Amino acid sequence: MDLKDKTVLITGSTDGVGRVVAERLGASGARVLVHGRDEGRGKAVVSVIEASGGKAELLVADLSSLAEVRRFAEAVRAKTNRLDILISNAGVGTGGQDSKRQVSADGYELRFAVNYLAGFLLTSELLPLLKASAPARIVNVASAGQQAIDFGNVMLTHGYSGVRAYCQSKLAQILFTIDFAEHLKGSGITVNALHPASYMNTTMVRQAGVTPWSSVETGADAIFNLAASPALEGRSGLYFDGQRESRADAQAYNEGARRQLRALSLELIEGASATSRKQQS
């Protein structure tokens, strides 16, 4: 794909693999909408992209709040009337062996909320921009760490571990990828997911107490491939391990599970929205 004059939004792009991808996209001629929670780090990424001759703008948002996700989507729509590529990369890691259960601003289990639900809502909110820019691409940065969703205990109020929460949230991303690909057939929008690389040298991995053994550059290569490779034109609903097409956990290919996750996601988003309206009234 010729990235010149394409508009790309990549969440979680002020650090780690997201930052490397954002800088590569900018150097390739794309207009990059940089996202993060830290304004200082975000401005530094924008400066690097601009120094390479690229175009970049920063949008600050905390994706642990669904109301903030909606405001973020509004800010994106105010910045641009097109979106050629959306890369959902922002996430919370396992937190290490001693991680305690945390909740989002809406009271949902934090990793499920940030790693999956925020991306589900943001993608839905930005769908009109993607459709207006078709052919367009959605790339969900998931993981090879996957665990089947227990729909009776999605919020992990019992049996919690940071690893379980992380792996469940990442599989949820892949279920969403396949489900959304079906929904968008014929629209000109493709949706694919990937595990970029194992234990990259990122803050997330180091905080988990793991010694990194992959580079962020390797992971960035894989993400960039899904975002821009001509070989992926028109191909959708796929899961990649690095740059190799692969298979996710069996639950990802269960239509009933995908339908159940979609219904739950809509219910959780509406519940958060109703609570927000009640607090404002």
Textual characterization of the structure:
The protein is α/β, with parallel strands linked by helices. It has one domain (7-280): Rossmann fold (3-Layer(aba) Sandwich), CATH 3.40.50. Helix content is 46%, strand content 14%. The protein has 8 helices and 8 strands. The chain has helices spanning 16-27, 39-51, 66-79, 110-132, 162-183, 203-207, 216-228, 255-280, and strands at residues 7-10, 31-36, 55-60, 85-88, 136-141, 189-195, 238-241, 244-246. An 8-stranded mixed β-sheet has the order 3-2-1-4-5-6-7-8, with helices on both faces. Helix 5 (162-183) packs across helix 8 (255-280). The longest helix has 26 residues, at 255-280. It is globular, with a radius of gyration of 17 Å. The mean pLDDT is 93.
Count of the separate structural domains: 1
The coarse overall form would be: globular
N-to-C terminal Cα separation, in Å?
48 Å
Counted by DSSP, the helix tally is: 8
Structural class computed from helices and strand pairing: alpha/beta
CATH architecture: 3-Layer(aba) Sandwich
Mean pLDDT: 93
Total beta strands: 8
How are the strands of the biggest sheet laid out side by side?
A: 3-2-1-4-5-6-7-8
C-alpha Rg (nearest Å): 17 Å
The H-level CATH homologous superfamily, spelled out, is: NAD(P)-binding Rossmann-like Domain
Helical residue percent band: 40-55%
CATH topology: Rossmann fold
Main beta sheet: strand number and arrangement? 8 strands, mixed
Low-confidence stretches: none
Strand content: 5-15%
Topology as H/E string? EHEHEHEHEHEHHEEH
CATH class, please?
Answer: Alpha Beta
